[in-house]
Amino acid sequence: MRSAAVQTMKETEKNPTPQIRRFNRFAEKYSPRIDLSIEKYFTGKKKDAEHAFMAEIRGDLAEYCLRPGKRVRPLVLIAAYLGYGGGPSRLKEVVAIASSLEIMHSFLLIQDDIIDRSSVRRGGEAFHLLMRRRFTGITRNQGIGSDVALVAADVLFCDALQLVLGAKMERTAKESFLRLFARTYERTAWGQILDIINTMPLALRSGDTAAREIGMMKTAYYTVYYPLLMGCALAGADGARERRAIGRFALPLGHAFQVRDDILGVFGDRVEMGKSADSDLLEGKKTVLVQNTVERLDAAGRKRFEALFTKKTKTKTDLRRMRTMMRKSGALDASGDLHRRLIDEAVRAAPALAMNGEGRDVLLGLCAAIGALN
């Protein structure tokens, strides 16, 4: 049985509001341009590959990067560039730069799936499993898939930089972007480390703030705050006041994005998510949903939940029991309430953004769409 929070998300997806439709129209206009930029880049790199194995892996990387996805980060950058008065004459170059964020997203997903021992990503095989299948039989190395995937991810990092450096924009704009680029992925890396050291914990405790900190570092800054700043900087509108306004809007919205992901990571559908809805519990991920459960159970219930959550190997019955405890404790509904409060906070902060009306409308559409994104 679905909770009210999950049911509301499903209904919103099926019957999008005018604001969501506005964001969807923006995505429908620019997502194909982002994909075309990535496709053209990889086609050129594959053609210029010095060895057959490079061309093969290039083809696999292109397929992986172009799998169906939300493209939220490059879309946010483009919306910010246009909203802050960026000229249409440079839009092609801005789309290319924005595409680097999608390539970097794929870089992080490859790493994430190796760390989490995940098998599915965006409806297809995780990249390390693709590499294992491609190269098994030519070596005794049992870790060939992960070994190749890790280094192939490094290739993607280089590709992202080459896309940025190849864009025909003035030096100062590129330098501003690259400073933000470096801050983005350094903060995200620290968030990933914090996630790793809090995954599969030996115990759970009341008052733990790790889940929120991980969500802010790995999602809020990475998904909304920095892409907005990047678009603002490329439009030449960056300033201390606007950075503060962007923070008041972007951070709660990005946090809401993560809370929704936490909910769907336990109560979502594999087809909708492109990965198993058992993965967060099986991997022992500390999420807002897990922490809310810890806070709402009595001592005996918390002990039972902790015993299940910290098991090295979990059965289907274990997963079912944990989901039941999350529902009955009120943690699932509380997480849905937090999600809505955070979106409301972002909506209230939007008028302070010094953007044109069209750009602000796209971002308000994103606020509405967060509840419907898969």
Descriptive keywords:
single chain; 374 residues; mainly alpha
Task: Provide structural commentary.
With 374 residues, the chain is mainly α. It is 75% helix and 1% strand. The protein has 17 helices and two strands. Strand 1 (120-121) and strand 2 (124-125) form a beta hairpin. The protein is globular. The model is unreliable at 1-6 (pLDDT under 50).
As a whole number of angstroms, the C-alpha radius of gyration is 21 Å
Strand content: under 5%
Number of H- or I-type helical stretches: 17
Strand order of the largest sheet: 1-2
Compute the separation of the termini in Å.
Answer: 19 Å
Tell me the major beta sheet. 2 strands, antiparallel
Question: Helix coverage percent of residues?
Answer: over 70%
The geometry reads as globular
Record field, number of beta strands: 2
| Secondary-structure-derived class | mainly alpha
Secondary-structure element sequence? HHHHHEEHHHHHHHHHHHH
- In round numbers, the mean pLDDT is 91
Low-confidence stretches: 1-6
